[in-house]
Design goal:
Strand order of the largest sheet: 3-6-2-1-9-11-12-10
Catalytic activity: L-aspartate + ATP = 4-phospho-L-aspartate + ADP
CATH class of the largest domain: Alpha Beta
Number of helices: 12
Keywords: Amino-acid biosynthesis, ATP-binding, Diaminopimelate biosynthesis, Kinase, Lysine biosynthesis, Nucleotide-binding, Transferase
CATH topology of the largest domain: Carbamate kinase
Largest sheet: 8 strands, mixed
Shape: globular
GO molecular function: aspartate kinase activity
Helix content: 25-40%
Structural class: alpha/beta
Protein name: Aspartokinase
Function: Catalyzes the phosphorylation of the beta-carboxyl group of aspartic acid with ATP to yield 4-phospho-L-aspartate, which is involved in the branched biosynthetic pathway leading to the biosynthesis of amino acids lysine, threonine, isoleucine and methionine.
CATH superfamily of the largest domain: Acetylglutamate kinase-like
Distance between the termini: 29 Å
Strand content: 15-25%
Length: about 425
């Protein structure tokens, strides 16, 4: 008997009919002779609705109470799903994150998993029950409070459960048929990948691909969990995310040099103008930014002007961190000696990712030529061994993605099917 962990996102359990459809799929997996553990997200957009409600009550929420509020969404989903499964004649037991043994640190809103002790889950499985776990949440032994894991936390919950229970596979169900070569809502001719390496998936997720959360992919790679991204709306095979070092003999990655194209509109750019071009100044700037907990992405420093001995340093970071970083830098302007700060939140980042880029020539040339022919101006460039990212204007990044996707021969013969929701 195999043990399968399944995760269903908000669009998969958006209403009563959707919950019944998901329950039927879970029961079918159980009837096939598998033990089943399910991690479930809040219904539809209910997390956003709870956030809106909190903002109506007060613009500044206590982090502890906000976690108490937001964790309610997943508890509703888990209970309704267990009821639906029971109505089909199968035993099902629902558990909150704390009941499931999901132990986290004490950080509210973005807690990290420090341990998983699934004692009650194993007992339920031994009794022949289907186990339903509320995703996105845990319990801190340090503070003895409920915590939430942040956006994409249900993916991470599912992977953590799969690792702790030594599951055969962790199936991530979403509203598309798998991992595509681009967001099918942006690039209509994107096609589904049969397999993608965990390394490629990490880069795609970090670059804005929404189908899997980066923390979940990272956790899966670290603990050797095989992921299978599938649609909750049909029974077609999805995309297997695997570690090449653990791949079965004969398994091959996709033939294309490029596995996918990702777009990210969540970042802003800060330019520190007139920075003294001498050792230690950049260290001071980024030490100040680091103290705000902002996650810096792309960094570009211009050539120093001979007449002034000063340069400009530009970097990108999440829009949510922009104001904190600007305030911190402004407070250190005199100490550092720069001229001014510029802030731009109308940028978009496009990235191409592929393991085969390590040994392929001409990839950069093809990317830049495609952007040139589409009339797209490049503002910043960043690279790794298997990724090239460019920053451009937000209103042109989708057009850039379509052009680059076509240039690398990734277009499918027909438009991709998106069943519902936002890709999670």
């Amino acid at each position: 008997m195999s043990l399968i962990v399944q995760k269903f996102g908000g669009s998969s359990v958006a209403d009563a009919e959707s919950i019944k459809r998901v329950a039927k799929r879970i029961v079918e997996t159980r009837k096939a002779g598998n033990d089943v553990v399910v991690a479930v997200s809040a219904m539809g957009d209910s997390t956003d609705e709870l956030l809106d409600l909190a903002n109506e009550v007060t613009p500044i929420q206590a982090p502890r109470e906000l976690d108490m509020l937001l964790s309610a969404g997943e508890r509703i989903s888990m209970a309704l799903l267990a009821m639906a499964i029971k109505s089909m004649g199968h035993d099902a037991r629902s558990f909150t994150g704390s009941q499931a043994g999901m132990i986290t640190d004490a950080t509210h809103g973005a807690a990290r998993i420090v341990d998983v002790t699934p004692v009650r889950l194993r007992e339920a499985l031994d009794d022949g029950a289907i186990v339903i776990v509320a995703g996105f949440q845990g319990f801190s032994r340090e503070s003895r409070d409920i915590t939430t894991l942040g956006r994409g936390g249900s993916d991470t919950t599912a992977v953590a459960l799969a690792a702790a229970l030594e599951a055969d596979v962790c199936e991530i169900y979403t509203d598309v048929d798998g991992v595509y070569t681009a967001d099918p809502r942006v690039v209509k001719r994107a096609h589904k990948l049969g397999r993608v390496t965990s390394e490629e998936m990490l880069e795609l997720a970090a670059s804005g691909a929404k189908v899997l959360h980066i923390r979940a992919v990272e956790y899966a790679r670290r603990h050797g969990v095989t992921l299978h991204v599938r649609s909750s709306f049909n029974n077609t095979e999805g995309t297997v995310v695997y570690d090449p070092s653990r791949a079965p003999e004969g398994a091959e990655v996709e033939e294309s040099v490029i596995a996918g194209v990702a777009v990210d509109l969540s970042e802003a750019k800060i330019t520190v103008v007139g920075v003294p071009d001498k050792p230690g100044v950049a260290a001071k700037i980024f030490k100040i930014v680091a103290a705000t907990n902002a996650n810096v992405d792309v960094i570009v420093q211009n050539v120093s002007a001979a007449a002034t001995g000063k340069t400009d340093i530009s970097f990108t970071l999440p829009k949510a961190d922009g104001e904190k970083a600007l305030t911190a830098l402004a407070g250190a302007q005199e100490a550092i000696g720069f001229g001014s700060l510029q802030y731009d939140d109308q940028i978009g980042k496009l990235s191409i990712v592929g393991n085969a880029m390590r040994n392929a020539s001409g990839v950069s040339a093809k990317l830049f030529e495609a952007l040139y022919e589409a009339g797209i101006n490049i503002e910043m460039i960043s690279t790794s061994e298997i990724r090239i990212s460019v920053v451009t204007r937000a209103d042109s990044v989708n057009q850039a993605a379509i052009a680059v996707h076509t240039a690398f021969g990734l277009d499918a013969a027909e438009d991709a099917v998106v069943h519902a929701g936002t890709g999670r």
